[in-house]
Amino acid sequence: MRAAAPVLTALALAGCAHSGASPAVRYVDAHSHILAEMHAEDEIAMMRRAGLAGVVIMSPDPEALARIVAVDPGFVTPFVSIARTRDMKGIRLDDDSAARFAALHAAGAICGFGEIPTRLEPNPEPSDAAAIANAFRTRIYAEADRLRVPVNVHVSLENPEVVAAVERAVAAYPGMKLILAHSGWSAEAGLIGRLLAAHPNLYADLSVRLGPAEGWPAPGTSGPALPNRISILGADGALLPEWRALIEHFPDRFLFGLDITSTGSGRAHHIDELMAASRHALGQLPRGVEHAVSHGNIERLLKGCRRD
Prior knowledge:
The structure is a single chain. This protein is of the alpha/beta class. The chain has helices at residues 6-14, 40-49, 62-71, 97-106, 128-132, 135-147, 160-172, 189-198, 241-249, 271-282, 287-302; strands at 28-33, 54-59, 76-80, 112-117, 150-154, 177-180, 202-205, 254-255. It has an 8-stranded parallel beta sheet with strand order 1-2-3-4-5-6-7-8, sandwiched between helices. Strand 6, helix 8 and strand 7 form a beta-alpha-beta unit. Helix 1 crosses helix 10. The longest helix has 16 residues, at 287-302. The chain is globular. The chain starts with 5 loop residues before the first helix and ends in a 6-residue tail after the last helix.
């Protein structure tokens, strides 16, 4: 593992010895992906070594999902997603997507939908707002509403039009549990608080946003660390005050996540530091809130899922 930024290194060395954290608190990653460059057995072993008690793995490829679930069925919870690029294997966004999702759920092969991207390559839609309202995606929402399964959606809440599109979707399908991947990307605490207050079926995962603000060098480079511009942590690794207050106000609506992915971001190379940073930040919350965010909320959303 490459050298990490100073705060990351200190947190990794401290591990769970921080006064607010405890190894007794279980952490279930509510947002990660299959690593194309790693055997399924090795990916699961890496996650277990990092201290995870379970993981939601998302992929557009049902066969790949089945393979990784078979490695450790009690550890992996599968979500089916949409192929974002031409070279990705799996389900494409089209007229048949929602029906295929529902069939996989009926077969016990998956427990949820997502991460559903708003920006495909090539991208046929002019904006995230148009993507959220796309008829193929709304059929997925309708199936999630009918089946009462969670849907993880990657959307950047960067303007009022996108926010309005998300609000229309969650209001139209009240049985759908919509999870905002990365808490709406660059969305501020005030906006997320307003949305959670208005929509009881809306949730937010904290993947990427719990990464230290100073970031880390990309694997294979010796350049300076790239800052994490959407981090909700301060220089000391603690939650920013407005985010801590928000999480404590909505303790049942936030989900811990790592977003381990094969995009060249290098997050898999820093899984130990990411876990240490997350425990450090969330371990300073009241113990009941930490339990809810670290594992309780995602386990509640998945309760009753049948997997064959």
